[in-house]
Structure formats: structure tokens, C-alpha cells
Amino acid sequence: MKFLFVSLLALISFGSFAQIKPAVKGVTYGAKTTAAGAIEVNLMEEKLVTAEKFAGKVKGTVISVCEKKGCWMKLAQADGEGIMIRFKDYKFFMPKDIIGKDVVLDGVAEKTTTSVEMLKHYAEDAGKTKEEIAKITAPKTEIEFIAKGVLVLN
Q1: What is the CATH number of domain 2-152?
Q2: Greater model confidence, 19 or 142
Q3: What is the Cα–Cα distance from 26 to 21, expressed in whole angstroms?
Q4: What is the pTM assigned to this prediction?
Q5: How many whole angstroms from its chain centre is CA 14?
Q6: 39 and 51 Cβ atoms separated by less than 8 Å
Q7: Per the CB 3.0–4.6 Å rule, which of 31, 38, 41, 82 could disulfide with 60?
């Protein structure tokens, strides 16, 4: 029984250390990718005006990340909003210190409607106050990018 307890404690410790690794230049999370062929976020947004989906690489700056475990992040947009980035099949997470870093995403983007429930969930994950969360009362149409790989540029 003591061995089982010690093993479980060690497993939990290793798991928690994995979540605090810093974002490092040149490191790829998820599927290996490079910066070759990446376009700026605003160019992807322009393509989504006439196309239903965008598949390829996008370069941008991270402005927000899930504070709980790094399971989503947002890239800066010209209008001040952020493009929601989630990770393919929930297979990898991002370091919590990724805010302000430039990254290349490889994946697929499309316009989606996010429910009030999910918007509140994301706001809670981002550490928003109860007052800020209470102000979320309508669904939002936005760009969502499902990344299969993320490369940290700086």
C-alpha cells in the first residue's frame, strides 16, 4: 500500500512539472512544424471573408492562454479581439508563460458560433472576475483555429 501511495505521489509530481515548462524559442508543441509558408493573422482573416475554411500556417502573437492548464490560447487581431486557438484532439497544451510570444500555428481555421456557456467557461479559464463573466449574455461568431502544431518563434 505504501508503495502504491509513493508511486501515485511521484506520478502527480511529474505531471505537475510538465505543466510549468516555459515557452522556449524553437520548441514545437504538437505536430512538428516550421515557419515556412506562414502568413500573418490578418491575411487569414481576409481569406475567411470569402472562404468557409482556411488550412495552412498562420503567424501571430499570443495575447491570452488558459490559466488552468494551457488547453487554449488566443492570437492578437487588429480589432483587439483574439482568435481562439484550440489544439487538435486535445493532444497537447501550451505553457502558461506563452503570452506575448510570437508563434506559428499549423492547422485549420473557420468561423464558428461560440455559446454563452463556452464563452463563460473560457472567461473563467482566463481568470476573469465574476463580474466580467456575468456580462457575457450572447453567443459570439468568431474565428476558431484548430492547431495540430505550434512553433514558438521568440
Answers
A1: 2.40.50
A2: 142
A3: 14
A4: 0.78
A5: 23
A6: no
A7: 41
